């Protein structure tokens, strides 16, 4: 690795286990700046765990994580990272906060301690809400929205700080098919036009391969890691092997 | 019948204190309720009682303590209880709510022992349990004013952080917010507010002033800021009406204030119900 080249994420020989159960074994991989990485794997394969390790929410027993070239423990620019957790819709749904207030939370790290939101921030919040098509719900309580609508709000919260890296853990659970297509298209635009680096966990393998530039397949260990073209070559055998049964990789619909 | 507010200093003290508490308790109460920790206030109020009882007992034997305002000893115990809850939560990571009954029973146990040692109940203790319009001193007013300033600085300057931490701790961590310290300061402030509210509402009822106005406003408000606003309006209404009524009827104010809170809560539920019924009627 040359001094100049700093991937958005670099994970070196990372292993993680809960009390007695190995979840991740010797994972090494990189997410190049500007790429759109799809992370796939069966339920319980450790995808969410890997993401929580790279965000510092879990401490791996061994291995190193670098974000934009900085070791995780020294990394400070959290506003450069947007995150939508898989559990985003298991929050306290009776929480009395409006859509606007929830999205504003995404800016708090950027605004900083002891400071307040200004006009520019407010405009940003409104824009992010418009981007996910929730402008009509700006002042509604988050608890009064449907699951898919809530998910869009959490995506807006992750986008509002103009992150350089956006991490999405199954963000489209509960979002209807038409919106999912639109949502992936939006991610693709952000990636191709604004250079946003994306890490997307999903089970929508067919849909995903239309949009991503790189794929990683995880099941405790990393089974595949490379760009989409390479992935298409190995996907047929690779998937059945990893999932333990035959998988139909959906054909693209053009 | 005019209310002799300007005639008696004790009434002024009681009202000024009441108005400050009517502001403080619901403001912190909003965060407590949305975090689903409503019982923390109960645990801390009972440990405060142990502090008061300890001071009353010591006051019998040691000259220094008989001259000391028991509110300070109450605060020491209450803050100690807050630290205890904070530590216990770390021990019982997956059963965080266990910290509350542990501290609560320790508080009651200690109170009973100190009260027995102090030779049982007296009017002082009665005032602390249920509140009193007569018992508020100038020094109480200043102490509470000082706490009000601290709480306001804390809530205004750390509003964003408190908000995210209450909504979802994981997001807070990913935003680089140092949750541990803020949570710790928060619970210490709750302890201080509880100890300082007891002269007016009484130890047994202080937690209701933190939770009932919030319970009412959460049903009606749109958003977090509005929840604050309504909670404070409800809290102040209950305190002011409760104090006036308790003065005329010569009741302990804790009872009247809490009953006004309950009435406000019932009215808010009724209002919500009527409103949603009307919506349904219109839709049909
Ligand atoms: N808090 C926990 N304590 C113990 N084991 C856990 C815990 N969380 C997850 N696990 C285990 O770790 C493994 C990996 O879980 P993880 O959530 O990372 O899977 P995943 O790939 O995200 O699955 P899914 O596709 O269902 O979201 C699973 O076997 C799970 O049982
Ligand atoms: Mg997962």
UniProtKB/TrEMBL annotation, chain A:
Signal peptide: none annotated. PROSITE patterns: ABC_TRANSPORTER_1, ABC_TRANSPORTER_2. Keywords: ATP-binding, Nucleotide-binding, Transport. Gene3D superfamilies: P-loop containing nucleotide triphosphate hydrolases (3.40.50.300). CDD domains: ABC_Metallic_Cations (cd03235). Pfam families: ABC_tran. Belongs to the ABC transporter superfamily. This is Metal ABC transporter ATP-binding protein. It comes from Fictibacillus terranigra. The lineage of its organism: Bacteria, Bacillati, Bacillota, Bacilli, Bacillales.
TrEMBL record, chain B:
It is a multi-pass membrane protein. It comes from the Bacteria. The chain crosses the membrane at residues 14-34, 64-86, 98-121, 141-159, 180-197, 228-248, 254-271. The keyword Transmembrane applies. Its main location: membrane. It is found in: Cell membrane; Membrane. SUPFAM superfamilies: ABC transporter involved in vitamin B12 uptake, BtuC. Keywords: Membrane, Transmembrane, Transmembrane helix, Transport. CDD domains: TM_ABC_iron-siderophores_like. It holds the Pfam family ABC-3. Belongs to the ABC-3 integral membrane protein family. This is Metal ABC transporter permease. It comes from Fictibacillus terranigra.
């Amino acid at each position: 690795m040359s001094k100049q080249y700093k991937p958005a994420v670099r994970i070196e020989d990372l292993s993680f286990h809960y009390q007695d159960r190995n979840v991740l074994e010797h994972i090494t991989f990189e997410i190049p700046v500007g790429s759109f990485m799809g992370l796939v794997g069966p339920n319980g394969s450790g995808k969410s765990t890997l993401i929580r390790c790279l965000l510092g929410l879990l401490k791996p027993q061994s291995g190193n994580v670098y974000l934009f070239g900085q070791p995780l423990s020294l990394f400070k620019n959290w506003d450069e990272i947007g995150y939508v957790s898989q559990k985003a819709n298991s929050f306290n749904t009776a929480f009395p906060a409006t859509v606007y207030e929830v999205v504003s939370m995404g800016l708090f790290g950027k605004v900083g301690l002891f400071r307040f939101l200004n006009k520019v921030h407010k405009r940003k919040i409104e824009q992010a809400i418009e981007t996910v098509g929730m402008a009509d719900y700006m002042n509604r309580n988050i608890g009064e929205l449907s699951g898919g609508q809530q998910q869009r709000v959490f995506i807006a919260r992750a986008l509002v700080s103009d992150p350089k890296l956006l991490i999405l853990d199954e963000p489209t659970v509960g979002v209807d098919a038409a919106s999912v297509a639109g949502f992936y298209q939006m991610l693709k635009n952000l990636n191709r036009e604004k250079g946003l680096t994306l890490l997307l966990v999903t089970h929508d393998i067919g849909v995903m391969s239309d949009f991503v530039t790189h794929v990683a397949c995880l099941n405790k260990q990393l089974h595949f890691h490379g760009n989409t073209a390479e992935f298409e070559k190995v996907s047929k055998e690779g998937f059945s092997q990893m999932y333990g049964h035959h998988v139909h990789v959906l054909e693209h619909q053009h | 019948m005019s209310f002799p507010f300007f005639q008696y200093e004790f009434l002024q003290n009681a009202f000024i204190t009441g108005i400050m508490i009517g502001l403080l308790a619901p403001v912190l109460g909003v965060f407590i309720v949305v975090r689903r920790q409503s019982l923390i206030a109960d645990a801390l109020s009972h440990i405060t009682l142990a502090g008061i009882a300890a001071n009353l007992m010591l006051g019998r034997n040691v000259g220094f303590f008989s001259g000391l305002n028991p509110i300070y000893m109450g605060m020491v115990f209450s803050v100690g209880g807050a630290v205890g809850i904070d530590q216990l939560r770390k021990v019982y990571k997956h059963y965080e709510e266990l910290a509350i009954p542990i501290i609560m029973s320790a508080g009651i146990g200690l109170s009973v022992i100190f009260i027995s040692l102090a030779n049982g109940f007296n009017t002082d203790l009665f005032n602390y349990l249920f509140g009193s319009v007569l018992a508020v001193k100038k020094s109480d007013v200043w102490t509470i004013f000082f706490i009000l300033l601290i709480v306001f600085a804390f809530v205004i300057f750390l509003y964003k952080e408190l908000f995210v931490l209450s909504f979802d701790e994981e997001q807070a961590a990913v935003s680089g917010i140092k949750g541990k310290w803020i949570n710790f300061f928060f619970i210490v402030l709750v302890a201080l507010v509880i100890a300082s509210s007891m002269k007016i509402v009484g130890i047994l009822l202080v937690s209701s002033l933190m939770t009932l106005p919030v319970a009412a406003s959460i049903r009606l408000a749109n958003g977090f800021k509005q929840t604050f606003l309504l909670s404070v309006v409800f809290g102040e209404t209950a305190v002011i009406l409760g104090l006036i009524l308790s003065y005329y009827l010569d009741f302990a104010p804790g009872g009247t204030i809490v009953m006004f809170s309950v009435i406000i809560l019932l009215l808010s539920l009724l209002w919500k119900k009527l409103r949603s019924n009307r919506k349904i009627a219109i839709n049909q």
